[in-house]
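forwarding from the other thread:

> can someone predict this with flavin-adenine dinucleotide?

sure thing
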Amino acid sequence: MPRGQKSKSRFLLLYGSQRGQAKSIAEEICDQAEGLGVVADAYCLSQKEKYNLEKEIAPVVFVVSTTGDGEPPDTALAFVRGIKKKTLPSDHFEHMRYALLALGDTNYSNFCNCGKTIDSRLQELGAKRFYPTGHADDGVGLEIVVEPWIEGLWEAVRKALSEMSASGQERLDQAETDPNGYVGKQDEPNTDKFGGDLNIQLLSLHDPVPGLSDVGPQREGAGAEAGAAYTLLTRSQPPVSESSLSIPTLPPPFIDVQLLNTSPQEVISPFSLPHVPVSRAVRLTGEGAVKTALLLELDEHQMDYQPGDSFDIHCPNSCAEVDELLRRLGLSQQKSCSVQLQLRADTKKKAAQIPSYIPERCSLQYLFTWCLEIRSVLKKAFLRSLVEYTSNPAEKRRLQELCSKQGSAEYNSFIRDPGLCLLDLLRAFTSCLPPLSILIEHLPKLQPRSYSAASSSLSHPGKLLFVFNIVEFPACAERPIPRRGVCTGWLADMVSSVLQPSGGVHTQEMNPGLQTSPKVFVSLRPSSAFHLPADPTVPIVMVGPGTGVAPFIGFLQHREKQRQENQEAAFGETWLFFGCRYKDREFLFREELENFVARGTLTHLKVCFSRDAGDGEELGPKYVQHNLHLHAQQVGNVLLKQNGCFYVCGDARNMAKDVNEALIEIVGKELQVDKLEAMKVVAGLREEKRYLQDIWS
Ligand code: FAD
């Protein structure tokens, strides 16, 4: 971003983003700074040629996310490597004053690890914090920490700038701070609705809350019934309805859209990626299973993968939802028009860019099908923009409430927790009719979904297998229409007519010719450390309940081939802890696993069934962690005496945490040490890459 006007004070804003969250928070900070008369020079950490921290005399603000198993995002990798160099002297950054906002997810281990690493390394190199570090948790909602952190940042920046003024910094312009810590130029009327002059606008205390019966005009395809079903969302209630509201600044618009009647550029392959046929689809779970698990086999000859690798499936949004959205926006007739995007000449948004993931002159339908995450949960900034395009006064006020500071709890209950998306909102707020440009500005990129390979290319040359549960979101009071996950729902629909019933992985290829098979776009993810040990004599413990068993099927197939090919060689012990609810319906890969045991590839198979207890069978362990405890001594031996490896795959929200706790207890018990010491040992196992996780939520 170019340096701003000389009259304004400036600070440097550096972000490291994997999926765009840190970037969009940095943009938010930039926009607010603009309104306060401060210039934020914002760059991605990877744009090394644009900033020079060795010589930086202005305050520096970092916003960094964490990815995978506590790794830096790809864009921050080189930066982190650079500051970790042991040769740097301890006063290397003595001149630096910085603040840091770390993003993470407590469902994963190593919460905010990238932010924490940068923070502690900057301290070691002499930099001083001018504002406490924020650690925002995506597991409960980033905004819980991000919003107050940004609110408090301005006073801290102002102070840092004034303290640093001796080294050539100019004072922060006349920004005023209200008693609650809100900052705004309250002496200037906010006449330019796109100017973003105020961080927070105060609405009058007695703005009337008009009756909800006074609904706005019906739009194409928007049913009044659907609106009525969302009353929790749409109804203003005390105390928020009676409160004056502090609402975010209107994000400055930056895109102009034209829909051209010329035929759109034909996009043959949306991603220039291999488009591979699905050669087999098997339902792994039986009737009555709580979740439906499917196995898909891809006819993939180009990807060179190892068991333990994962890959991305690039899925489209649901056709029905795209059609409904287009209808609701009054754009159905133009769905084949080509979309031409331009930056608004008058935009006040800093570093405004046309999204790189939207191909030039694609059709409107393509845009909504392949480019935009139309199911993304509505952010407050988006709600704020939608206020401007809502004609009914009651609905307008309600949207203001939902994005306001006072309506935070309601936002969490009615939008964030039930995962409400744009279409839900348009169904409920029938007078809201946003222009296309706003949607392109606010809807994030449609992300591919990752899956772990459930095969070894040694035993399945030219094939790639994976397993997934169809994600179901049942209807709830806040969202009366049930739905399936974007990718798993799409995959399930696509293979429904060729799906084979459960019968193990040895079922027939459904269509040897593959001419008419459904196809998916795939790409391999960067390889992680989640692989079998290079030395086959190293013993391993695998913990993979439910679909978490997937990579271990690949491990075992690989091991089995290695054993067949090297009959004289020695192989380490293999343990697998599997669990599910019901043995008869959800025991995935039962036959294969039992065969691995029979052939000696899998030395110990330990299973448990959480909901089978009480049906006449002896009450056994319920969850994998209970089974680990029952075999504490052997697991301890593998890890602590035989230098073995411990792998965990599957649900990050509960299972991975419980297994981690169990491991700490086992280590404590086996080594006869207290919890703190056991935690250190477990952290050491992680460092040595002997405790590896492939977990997701
Ligand atoms: P989506 O439409 O993306 O919805 C699912 C997510 O949206 C939920 O996780 C939740 O966070 C959120 N959400 C949306 N609406 C709501 C709501 N109303 N209430 C609550 N939450 C909501 N999955 C597998 O099944 N098998 C695998 O082998 C596998 N391997 C993976 C490997 C890696 C490295 C990673 C990162 C993930 C892996 N996953 C795997 C998860 C997988 O990528 C997808 O997240 C999953 O299949 C769901 O995708 P979806 O598009 O169907 O669901």
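The chain is about 30% helix and 20% strand. thats all i got for now
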